[in-house]
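Hi V.,

Quick status before I head out on leave. The structure for the redesign project is tokenized and pasted below; the design run finished overnight.
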């Protein structure tokens, strides 16, 4: 699947970013918000590395980040429509 992913969207992610995207994809399907802290945990790496990957995914247009209206101390992240389409395409691709 990793090879298919790289063929579909290029070798731009690395595993921490891919883990973040998968977490967001699942959260979207479940209709739950995803705080930045959860993505850092999903990345399975240091917070600084996770934040660099998050910045890269934001710049690539695959995700968006907004302040949480109910809790000003945190931000919520979600896939953009483009990001959701890309992840769905990779997951549906046959090996």
């Amino acid at each position: 699947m990793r090879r298919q992913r790289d063929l579909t969207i290029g070798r731009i992610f690395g595993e921490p970013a891919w883990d973040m995207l998968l977490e967001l994809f699942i959260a979207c399907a479940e209709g739950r918000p995803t705080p930045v802290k959860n993505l850092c945990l999903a990345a399975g790496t240091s917070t600084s590395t996770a934040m660099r990957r998050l910045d890269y995914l934001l710049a690539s247009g695959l995700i968006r980040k907004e302040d949480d209206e109910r809790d000003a101390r945190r931000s919520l992240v979600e896939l953009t429509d483009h990001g959701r389409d890309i992840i769905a395409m990779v997951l549906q691709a046959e090996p």
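Above is the designed sequence. The longest strand covers residues 63-67.

G. will cover questions while I'm gone.

Best,
W.
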